[in-house]
Amino acid sequence: xxxxxxxxxxxxxxxxxxxxxxxxxxxxxxxxxxxxxxxxxxxxxxxxxxxxxxxxxxxxxxxxxxxxxxxxxxxxxxxxxxxxxxxxxxxxxxxxxxxxxxxxxxxxxxxxxxxxxxxxxxxxxxxxxxxxxxxxxxxxxxxxxxxxxxxxxxxxxxxxxxxxxxxxxxxxxxxxxxxxxxxxxxxxxxxxxxxxxxxxxxxxxxxxxxxxxxxxxxxx
Length: 220
Fold this sequence. Notes:
10% of the residues lie in helices and 41% in strands. It is mainly beta. The protein has one domain: Lipoprotein localisation LolA/LolB/LppX (outer membrane lipoprotein receptor (LolB), chain A), CATH 2.50.20.
């Protein structure tokens, strides 16, 4: 899986928290050490689940949007976000397709992830592959932050700018920040992260309720 990371200026990173954040860029040797630690740690992790809080700041809205739920990840086979508040809906990524379904709806949308710029198109960030990471590593008091180099890429294909915060001790993902050119900022914070626990069958074998019609969108 390809790891996608990019630089977000400190002023942008702080918008969701309204606080000043001082980042220190790690030296080449320091960055190499962190990536080696990350590579060794990731070898033993195949599954991850956690509670999450997702906050979306949209310039046209006076207040940010807040969602809560639980996230499930299985390496190379499953990414599932179950939103519980303010209303129940799911996002499932499987076999390069993303399924969006709101509980009680008579339809569900199925989209090829190559056409998605949000979190559904970047599920691989929960299993960062350091061998494919090309960028810079920063740190603040609580986390290491990975930011991808964007030089030489087609601007049309870059998608949202992405920063991934790693817990300094465990190197598990603790926060993800995405910002697009329109100024929309999405922050996903993971809480009570568990690794290698069995994913509930209701999630791993999720099926839409009988009678729900699937709308296939943006299929290649």
